[in-house]
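Progress against Task 2.4 (sequence-to-structure conversion) is shown through the following example record, which the project officer requested during the mid-term review.
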Amino acid sequence: MTDNSLDFLQEPDAAPQRRGLSLSSIVLLIGVILSGLVLAWQLANQNRLQPMPGEPARDFLLTTFDGQTLSTADLRGQIIVINFWASWCAPCREEAPDLQQLHLDYADQGVTLIGVNWLDIEGEALAFMDEFGLTYVNGPDMGERIAEQYAIQGAPETFIIGPDGTVTHSFLGLVDYDKLAAAIDEVLAGEDAT
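Structure tokens generated for the chain above:
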């Protein structure tokens, strides 16, 4: 008579080992690689479309929240700071006081700050402007025309345009007063040198 109570201590028969990948694993791997390549290509393409420092800025018309029409082409000769923002954007809330202070400090030096409200609800955007006491020009980007021209990737994004209409600086994401002021001072110093 054999005692089967200790059978659990014996090693089980080894299962046959497979070599290589199955067809479904290969198809899945190819799909993942192709998806990654497509995503990388789209991101590279998107970045290439965005106006970079040294390139001409894209002119646009903006109808402000108070019904005025603003043309960036008409502002040639000034420094323009374009900030894409939204009321639902946490970093936008963080940078709003700095942008307002920048507007107050540089408006008399030929610097125009333009807020382009992106993918937002008008009432929420107006409440945001009221909360932070924004007095610089702001308007909604109806149909995302301006966001498409600038190929923005999200809010906030900020572009500085020199008096000659060339992008001098761009900031993806949160930017603070010191960084913007340093960039504007650099552009102003370049004007003085000419």
